[in-house]
Predict the structure.
Amino acid sequence: MKLNEFRDRKGKEKIVMLTAYDSQISKIIDQVEIDMILVGDSLGMVFQGRTDTRSVTMRDMIYHTQAVARGAKRTPVVADMPFKSDSTPFIALRNARRLVEAGAEGVKIEGRKTDVIEALIAGGIPVMAHIGLLPQTAEAYRVMGKTPEDAQKILQDALHLDELGVFSMVLESMPEGLAKEITGAVRAPTIGIGAGRYCDGQVLVINDLLGLDPTFTPKYLKRYANLYQVISDAVGAFKRDVRGGKYPDQEHTYH
Ligand code: KIV
């Protein structure tokens, strides 16, 4: 399905999106046939080991988008516009085109950036909006929209971005009731992360779903595997075999 057709998915089968940062993972995801792969700037944290997403550059995003696109033969790839890459419509359009050249079909933009989003859509680039918690500018990672005023502001942003014609919008970290109201009010499908069950779809960071970091424990996160344990056990077994002279054995030796 093309990204620009996603507005037709509203109210139908739930949309499934996952992040990916490399081609082996995107190849596996591609074979499972989910709806979209996001090259998230979360790579700054889970791939680069930084404390936030702000230092991710266009160069990083292009590199990872190219890798992910090589593995994703059928699944549309969406790339995040990193911090400050969308500071004016002109700069944003130039950078979005670079991400499309790298293999993305569309881009995701954090916040209510009217001129930028209009310029990108006019330039033929499908845009996914992102509201609620905005990691690129947030002072702290917390649940947004808890007061009536904050909730109203987020709802107004959603309505406005919907009018601009975004093909979908991520709702990050907000009470389920607010996400439900937004989902019912906009034509674009909503994709939640920490936004409850009423969104039109869900997204998770692949490293979190796979359980790679036992110290990351937000309430919304369900781990579908414990790769931290699997990898620790495998590395430990390799260490024991090498130290004990058991690897390589005859089976793994050329003669
Ligand atoms: O960067 C990212 O991975 C994201 C998702 C959490 C939606 O923006």
About this structure: Residues 226-255 form one domain.
